[in-house]
């Protein structure tokens, strides 16, 4: 499968930001949830197990496609 090894960087801008990994394959479901407090960071990759990442809460997100902020009104 064509897959890059790029990392994505998530920096929480409030307490209780959730970073949720969703499965790759025929069913797409949550398989991992990580809670970040303000200013904590997570550096993550897409893997054979993880096809999508959902972020709940306010966080700065950097990817190869650019930088954006989640959780803004
Ligand atoms: N063990 C998981 C995996 O290899 C861990 C993981 C990778 C993950 N990327 C993630 C968890 C992104 C949450 C978000 O797929």
Automatic annotation (TrEMBL):
Pfam families: TrpBP. Residues 4-70 form the Tryptophan RNA-binding attenuator protein domain. The gene is mtrB. Gene3D superfamilies: TRAP-like. Belongs to the MtrB family. This is Transcription attenuation protein MtrB. GO terms for biological process: DNA-templated transcription termination; regulation of DNA-templated transcription. It comes from Alkalicoccus luteus. The keyword Membrane does not apply. It comes from the Bacteria. GO terms for molecular function: RNA binding. Oligomer of 11 identical subunits arranged in doughnut-like structure.
